[in-house]
Each structure stands twice: as C-alpha cells, then as structure tokens.
Amino acid sequence: MTALFALATAVLWGLADFGGGLLTRKIPALTVVVVSQVVAVVVLGALVLATGAWHEADPRLWFAVAAGVVGPVAMLSFYKALALGPMGVVSPLGSLGVVVPVAAGLMLGERPGPGQFAGIAVAVVGIVLAGGPELRGAPVQRQAVVLTLVAAFGFGAVMALIAQASTTITGLFLALFVQRVTNVAVGGAALWAQSRRGVPALPEGTGPRILWGLLPALAFVGLADVAANGTYSVAAQNGPVTMAAVLSSLYPVITALAAFAVLKERLRTVQAAGAGLALAGTVLLAAG
Fold it and tell me: What ranges do the domains of the chain cover?
C-alpha cells in the first residue's frame, strides 16, 4: 500500500507542477498559487462539513498550520530561484528536499534493509538527474543556490509535517483544509504586499476575466496538489517513511515525461538516464 500511494503522490505532484508551470506563462506564479489553493479550500471545506471532520480537531493540527506556512515560502523561493537560473541546475537541486523526510524516518527508528538503502541511493540520484542538470553554460548565482536549498528544505519539511497532522482519513481532510487555509493566508498576504509595491497580480490589460478562462486549469493544479499531500500522508502512515518519501519524490520524472508528451520537449540523455535510475531504485525499494 505504501508504494502504491507514494507513486500516486509522485504522479499527482508531477502533473500539478507541469500544470502550474504552464499557467505561470500566462499569469504571475504567486497568483497561480493563491487562486489554485482557494479552489482547494472550497472543496476541502465541503468535505470537512460533509464528513463532520471538525470533530477530530486536536493539537496535531499545528503540524498542518506549520506545513501551510512553510509551503508557500518554499514555493516562492523555488520560483525566484528558477527566475535567477539556470533552470537546469535549480530544478534538480530542488528535489533534494527528499532528504528531510528520509532523515525524519531514520530518526524515528526506521532501519531500511540493504536492498532498500541501495534503492534509496539509486532513486535519489535518478531524481536529480531526471531534472536534466546543466553541467555547462551560465554560472549559478549564489542567491539562486541559497533560494533553491531553502525551497528544497521547505518541500521536504511539508512532507514530514503533513504526515504527522492526522491519524484518520476524516482527520486528514481537516488537516489538509487547515493547511490550505494557511496557504491562502500566507500567499494572499504576499500577493497583497507585492501589489502595494506596484507589482500587478494579473497581466496588464487583462483583469479578473482571465482567471475565469483559466479556472479549470487552476482548479486541477490546486486539487492535484492537495490530493498528493493526502496520498503521501496515507503512504507515510502505513509504511516506512523513508520508502514513502523517496517514491513520492519521483515527481520530477513525471513532470519531464509530461513535457515530452504534451509539449514535445526532447528528453536529454541525462534525463533519460535519470528516469531509468529512478525506476530501478523504485523496484529495489518495492522489492525490499
């Protein structure tokens, strides 16, 4: 069950990242984050009301609040790093966040077998290579590296925190709702601050009507992201966190494959090799 839900997480996160990347070509990244999360809040709020999940409120929800604060900071750091570039270095470095939940699992007493350790090592190398790291070209700015490492730590911290926020399915609905409300509050505050500095929330000459046309895509990004958090939580609670974290972090492979299938972007040799190693690591983990 752990492997199945973790791989589902990778697919959902990979497709959400791909969709979010396409949307940021039309509207600012922060607007994509806030609007997509508002959609998620509405859907999760309905689920909480329908299932009576609010009755399961307990101190564990503070983990969800923390995840909700860290998530937008990580995402904005990542987008800023991508803007500074080069993207081919920033993207694979961002996937190193897997180290955080893996370390958390080891601290909680998990002891993977030799085959699983080998699978973790192979999969992590594959994940990094699947991003297509640029070994030549423009030098990487120090600020871009710092921002990317902040983002990576943040992404990994969200994985670790959301896994601790609930113990039941209905409790998970409530935890995800709290997380997304916090996301919207933090992202909305940042969007308001940007607007006060003269940075428009929407492209000039468009207005709110552009959001209506993009609403289905925004909804998909928001709901895929929240579903990925949910499937990851289930994976981490029903098996080794180390396995759940590594398999879930295969999402860069999914994003690269989606770009290849939809945008006809050619996979570089290093990306294809990374995808193969990630698959080999997955097999080793599942077999262990």
Answer: 2-204+241-287
